[in-house]
Write a structure and sequence with these properties.
This protein is an alpha/beta fold and about 600 residues long. The protein has two domains: about 350 residues, Glycoside hydrolase, family 3, N-terminal domain (TIM Barrel), CATH 3.20.20; about 200 residues, Rossmann fold (3-Layer(aba) Sandwich). The chain is about 30% helix and about 15% strand. The protein has 19 helices and 19 strands. The strands form five sheets. The chain has a six-stranded mixed sheet, sandwiched between helices. The chain has a five-stranded parallel sheet with strand order 4-3-2-1-11. It binds beta-D-glucopyranose (BGC) (2 copies).
């Protein structure tokens, strides 16, 4: 291969900025569709549109003037099902899967997700996230399974095994363990912030998921935007993208990782002295494939110059290109176009069996935090309240059709049920009324009330609850408390569900509810919620609550200085083990939280 061909091979561009002909001309090794990028920038594009575009890129890569052609590989953020694709069944986000404590279920979800991805002609998932989150202020808490390293390790292994299956087969995708290393440990939970800890704790806590992923033969690792500061030595190592010790000596040398290391979206540009298109430090630190979504042309030109000027050794480029090609060989890409060769049909996007699997996951992810006898809800006439109750965007959270999960409507999710739709299907539509804000209803006409409090969708930095802001849900979303206030305390039992990407302070909501369920971000299968909320026709429980918290739940508006959580990790009631929850303390809303140690 020529230098141009090798540098092209280590370059990954976003489909919004690269054409199939660019792939051919510049010998590009990889493309991605970032969150909210679709073929032709049509959110409602069909599975055929995805297949067609995949085939165009593949054929372009196989029509270069190289002696031996190297197929392009396409990566996508399938983080809870194939979430960029219109009509795809979406599973609960990882925080809910973590609460389900069921690694075998995780593997089945991984396999179903891989089928969805392969149905669109794509062979690489940027998942799972293996962050071991220490501070729920982080806007990516929901992408994390648990704050417990041992749990993350077990789930990582199961999810990678499910996604990758039999490498090279028509239902296998490459998995990505991300984001190496310490993404969940940043101070104050700041996205892309600084993880201040010891090196030993980096390995004990934050690397735990990687041990599981490596045991399952994960083929790719994505580097974290975060920085590392070693509190034992005082050394500030700076951005992970420039860290040769952790990316090469530790990941390759000590852990024996043999796949490819990919940088995060413009991540190289965050290394001091670098730009989004020029960063010899990152390549020298061990990044094999550079995710340079927009500025890939400049990246290629600069990297060629770097090699010629010996700022990057030729051997490093050879090694990076060889690793990328080896991963492609193992994944079967050389054998056939993933779009033209055998692959699952479009029906796997939302077949009855994939929907049933997601519904099962929803049932298992629910954590019951309070039940003063209101659950299971007796079948009767039900009033549904709250802005989140008929919102597939809020039920699904970030990374759902769009990156932030914004700019979508419930009607953009076909083959899906909001909680309201699910309750209507279960009870008959004439038995379920809905009032988003709880005004103008005569509560006494109902046998039960279902209230949904919900965070609005977010991803990454936009989701941070920036220190010192309060973690109280009703301070951020006063409309939920207002709606609840209009219907509670009137002699009709109120069951409140919370759609959230993290534990939040909710004493005021709990006090006004007879039962309270942490539902996290369940995705498209609202019937899984209805399954557990509603009693069977004979009045007995149809399903019990088996989910248990995978994160500590704060007692007040702020994180406690030491201990003092309302519900510790592992907590969760069941219908057969009722426990009454007395009134919780309510103080005026906190304007600014006291200093946090993490
Ligand atoms: C992309 C996302 C990416 C983000 C990073 C967005 O434009 O669509 O996939 O994560 O930028 O800032
Ligand atoms: C995120 C990654 C993601 C990438 C591509 C970044 O902003 O941090 O998790 O895989 O974008 O969309």
């Amino acid at each position: 291969m020529t230098l141009e061909q090798k540098v092209g091979q280590i370059t990954q561009a976003d489909i919004r900025s690269v054409t199939p002909d660019d792939v051919r001309k510049y010998y590009l090794g990889s493309i991605l569709n970032g969150g909210g990028a679709w073929p032709g920038m049509n959110m409602h594009g069909s599975v055929d549109d995805w297949l067609k575009l995949s085939d165009e890129y593949y054929r372009a890569s196989m029509s270069t003037d190289m002696a031996v052609k190297v197929p392009v590989i396409w990566g996508t953020d399938a983080v809870h099902g194939h979430n960029n694709v219109y009509g795809a069944t979406l599973f609960p986000h990882n925080i809910g899967l973590g609460a389900a404590h069921d690694p075998a279920l995780m593997a089945r979800i991984g396999h179903a997700t891989a089928e969805q991805i392969r149905a669109t002609g794509i062979t690489w998932a940027f998942a799972p996230t293996l962050a071991v989150v220490q501070n729920p202020r982080w806007g990516r808490t929901y992408e994390s399974y648990s704050s417990d390293p041992a749990e993350v390790r077990a789930y990582a292994e199961a999810m990678v095994a499910g996604l990758q299956g039999q490498l090279g087969s028509a239902t296998s995708v490459l998995a990505t363990a991300k984001h190496w290393l310490g993404d969940g440990g940043t101070f104050h939970g700041q996205n892309e912030g600084v993880t201040q800890t010891t090196e030993a704790n980096l390995y004990r806590t934050h690397a735990a998921g990687y041990y599981g992923a490596l045991a399952a033969n994960v083929q790719t690792v994505m580097v974290s935007y975060s920085s590392f500061t070693d509190t034992a030595t005082g050394r500030a190592w700076g951005k992970m993208h420039g860290n040769a010790y952790l990316n090469t000596d530790v990941l390759r040398g000590r852990l024996g990782f043999e796949g490819l290391v990919v940088s995060d979206w413009n991540g190289i540009g965050q290394v001091p002295g670098c730009t989004n298109w020029h960063c010899p430090q990152a390549i020298n630190a061990g990044i094999d494939l550079a995710m340079v979504p927009d500025d890939w042309k400049k990246f290629i030109a600069w990297t060629i110059e770097d090699v010629q000027a010996r700022r990057i050794p030729m051997s490093r480029i050879d090694e990076a290109a060889a690793r990328i090609i080896a991963v492609k060989l193992r994944s079967g890409l050389f054998d056939r176009s993933p779009a033209a060769g055998p692959h699952p049909g479009a029906e796997v996007m939302s077949s009855p069996s994939v929907r049933e699997l997601a519904r099962e996951a929803v049932r298992k992810s629910l954590v019951l935090l309070k039940n003063d006898g209101a659950l299971p809800l007796k079948r009767g006439r039900i009033l549904v309240v709250g802005k989140g109750a008929d919102s597939l965007p809020m039920q699904s959270g970030g990374w759902s059709l769009t990156w932030q999960g914004d700019n979508t409507k419930t009607s953009d999710f076909p083959n899906a049920d909001s909680l309201l739709a699910a309750l209507r299907k279960s009870l008959g539509s004439t038995n379920v009324d809905y009032s988003a804000d709880g005004t103008g209803v005569d509560v006494s006409r109902y046998s039960g009330i279902v209230m949904v409090a919900a965070e609005k969708p977010y991803a990454e930095t936009a989701g941070d609850i920036v220190f010192p802001a309060s973690l109280r849900h009703s301070s951020r979303y006063p409309e939920d408390l207002a709606a609840l206030d209009r219907v509670s305390g009137k002699g009709v039992p109120v069951v409140t569900l919370l759609f959230s990407g993290r534990p939040v302070a909710a004493n005021d909501l709990m006090n006004r509810s007879d039962a309270f369920v942490a539902a996290f971000l369940p995705g498209t299968e609202g019937l899984g919620l209805a399954d557990v909320l509603l009693a069977a026709p004979d009045g007995r429980a149809a399903y019990d609550f088996t989910g248990r918290l995978s994160f500590d739940w704060p007692a007040g508006d702020c994180l406690p200085q030491q201990g003092g959580y309302r519900f510790p990790r592992g907590y969760g009631l069941s219908l057969t083990r009722p426990a009454r929850l007395g009134p919780l303390p309510e103080s005026p809303p906190t304007m600014a939280c006291p200093p946090e140690s993490r």
